[in-house]
Structures are given as structure tokens and as C-alpha cells.
């Protein structure tokens, strides 16, 4: 799966030189993040205008429409994570009201899909990591802060400054004992 500054999103197969599917044409908002869900049957694309779009991967048409497209944040959606069997999605980004980390239910109508919004990260959340074993979300912000949320209780557990500049990367070890942060500096 490839995404570009011009907003295009294309899917390729290792053994074929041409694209299999073009999910989005050039001329859309820049792609900020893309993932497959754990089953590999859906892919999601976040963009610079605050949208998250999700497609079924096994499309037979060359230009399929997403089955879900929401404006999750008013300015940008910088990252997201599929939670559980991809019926829950967490997003990070920047919104005018500082609700910069959100939980969404993909099985209900778009008007009722926001389950919870965490008010955090002045100037926006840049990255997001889901820890399934502990049911935690870890987010990094533009000012170097890390926030850890319990998604079962829907509350913030910890907030601390890890860097002097924007957090650009988060990684979690497979046993979920440690996480690592990387910054713009």
C-alpha cells in the first residue's frame, strides 16, 4: 500500500508490476498514515484535512469507494490504530477543541460514532500506539509530551514530557513491557 503527498493511495502485489487498485486519486489531501487491519482485509488512510477513510481490500473495481470516511479531527488526522477486530478505531490529530485523541465505533452511524475524545496535547497529537494486552493507547504530541490512556476506563493515566520537540515515532515491544519514542530533534 502506498500513499503520497498528492493524496493518491495505491495497492500493489509483490509479483505484479502494475497497481492492483487505486483507492484515491491524486488531488486529495496529503496522506499522513496508512495501515492494514490485523486480518488484512481492510486498509485505512488518514489525511492532512482530518479525515480517516477505510476500504475493504478485496475490491474488484479499479477505483473503489471507502465504506467509511469520517472527519475525525478539524485540522489533521496524523495517525490511527485499529482496535480489536477493527470495529473500534483510535485516531490522533489536531482539532480546534483540543480533542486530539479519539475513539470511534465503525459499526454505528457517523453521527454517533465518536465514543470518547481525550482533551490532550496542545497543538495536536502526532503519533499513536495501541497496546492490546494492557488496553492502553500511547500518544505523542507536537510539544514532546506523551500521554497514556486506559481505553476500558476511558481516562488518562499518565502525562509526561519525553522530548523538547514533536514526538515523531512510537514503538512498542511485543511483550508490552517497554515503549520507545523518537522526536524531531
UniProtKB/TrEMBL annotation:
UniProt record, GO biological process: vacuolar acidification
Top-rank taxon, per record: Eukaryota
UniProt KW Manganese keyword: no
Record PANTHER family: DMX-LIKE PROTEIN 2, RABCONNECTIN-RELATED
WD repeat ranges, renumbered to this chain: 118-159
Name of this chain's protein: DMXL2 protein
Keywords per UniProt: WD repeat
Gene Ontology cellular-component annotations: RAVE complex
Amino acid at each position: 500500500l502506498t500513499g503520497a503527498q498528492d493524496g493518491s493511495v495505491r495497492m500493489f502485489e509483490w509479483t505484479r508490476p502494475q497497481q492492483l487498485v487505486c483507492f484515491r486519486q491524486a488531488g486529495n489531501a496529503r496522506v499522513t498514515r496508512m495501515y492494514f487491519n490485523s486480518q488484512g482485509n481492510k486498509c485505512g488512510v488518514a489525511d492532512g484535512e482530518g479525515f480517516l477513510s477505510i476500504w475493504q481490500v478485496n475490491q474488484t473495481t479499479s477505483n473503489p469507494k471507502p465504506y467509511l470516511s469520517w472527519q475525525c479531527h478539524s485540522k489533521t488526522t496524523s495517525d490511527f490504530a485499529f482496535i480489536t477486530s477493527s470495529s473500534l478505531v483510535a485516531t490522533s490529530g489536531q482539532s480546534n477543541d483540543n480533542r486530539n485523541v479519539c475513539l470511534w465505533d465503525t459499526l454505528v452511524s457517523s453521527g454517533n460514532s465518536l465514543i470518547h475524545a481525550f482533551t490532550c496535547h496542545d497543538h495536536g497529537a502526532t503519533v499513536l500506539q495501541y497496546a492490546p494486552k494492557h488496553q492502553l493507547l500511547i500518544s505523542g504530541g507536537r510539544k514532546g509530551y506523551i500521554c497514556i490512556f486506559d481505553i476500558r476506563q476511558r481516562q488518562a493515566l499518565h502525562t509526561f514530557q519525553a522530548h523538547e520537540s514533536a514526538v515523531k515515532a512510537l514503538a512498542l515491544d511485543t511483550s508490552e513491557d517497554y515503549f520507545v519514542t523518537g522526536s524531531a530533534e
